[in-house]
Amino acid sequence: MKTVLKFLLGVLAFGAVSSIANAQSFSCAVSSGTPYCSYTGKLSRVYINEGNMMLFYLEQAADIAVPASVGYTGVTKGTAVSYNAAVNPIFAEYFYSTALTALAADKTVGIQMRQTVGGYMKVDRIWLYK
Questions:
Q1: Measured in Å, how far apart are the chain's first and last C-alpha atoms?
Q2: How would you classify the pairing of strands 80-84 and 120-128?
């Protein structure tokens, strides 16, 4: 009976840990006098148009009031983050391919934003997690 109970507790603990690992988070802070926002979670889709606007849709929308808490005004869209590929095409290619990899493999990403563009937070770095 103790073995069965230990097994059931182990299964419950594993389930709790894996749901924590898949949790979404969006936050903003100031580091060395520079504000930034970050998202950790999954992407639901990626987009690019002929005008070089890239959008990375967050699996869970961000609260648009949070960026204002560190001084980013003009954020009106919390469903996605953005980058203009014309600004730095090489970075845009790397970022987009990393985002596509994450989307295709259903992986968690970490994305950091430091500015706004067109009502979205503007991305400037990405991490891909196992």
A1: 36
A2: parallel
